[in-house]
Amino acid sequence: MKKISILLSEDHAIVRQGLCKLLETAGNFAVVGQAQTGREAIQLAAELRPDVILMDIAMPELNGLEAARQILNVNSAAKIIMLSAHSDDGYVERARAVGAVGFLEKQTSAEILTQAIDEVARGKTFYSPIIAKRLADGKRRAVDRDGQVKANATRLTSRETEVLQLVAEGQANKQVAGTLGISIKTVEKHRQHLMDKLNIHDTAGLTRHAIATGVIESRVQLTIL
Q1: Total-model pTM
Q2: N or C: which end of the chain has fewer CB atoms below 10 A?
Q3: What is the DSSP letter of 167?
Q4: Is the CB of residue 148 less than 8 Å from the CB of residue 156?
């Protein structure tokens, strides 16, 4: 029987090694590529066309949600399962909005992980039991700290999201320009658009916004039980 080919996108080497060993032991999976950044994930997804992509949300340079969006813009048939340390409704809704067909917490069990890959490879969607229950109950909208439904979030372009992440990761305009292959003036223009759209006036504010909206997130290693 043909093995399910998998692209593994995870920046922690020890987590990648553990996942690779687990999937190889399962027998019916083949890890055909490993990406350490969101940009590398986009490149390898185009080159390898794997059956399933396991995508960590907290990827450097380009977060997993934005990488997933760009992958699906090029190949709408790509099957992406998001991995995250957080499973609140906001993250799940953003993953669904970009076109991911699965979502697992990083504390998931090996059994659920392999089941998710099998289901998604067959064209189904898969969410971890806790998330699936919430979706079935109809609790699908993120709420703010006061318990009120959030207003429509400010929409950023893909390039603005990229600039936001790099700035939040501590890169200066010159570094952002080098990473994205654009001019410093263009970076400055995108940065100003970001601040105008978000009504934020300093780098610290952009960083707080990036964390609050999941553009970057705290790193928690995946535990395979």
Answers
A1: 0.75
A2: N
A3: H
A4: no
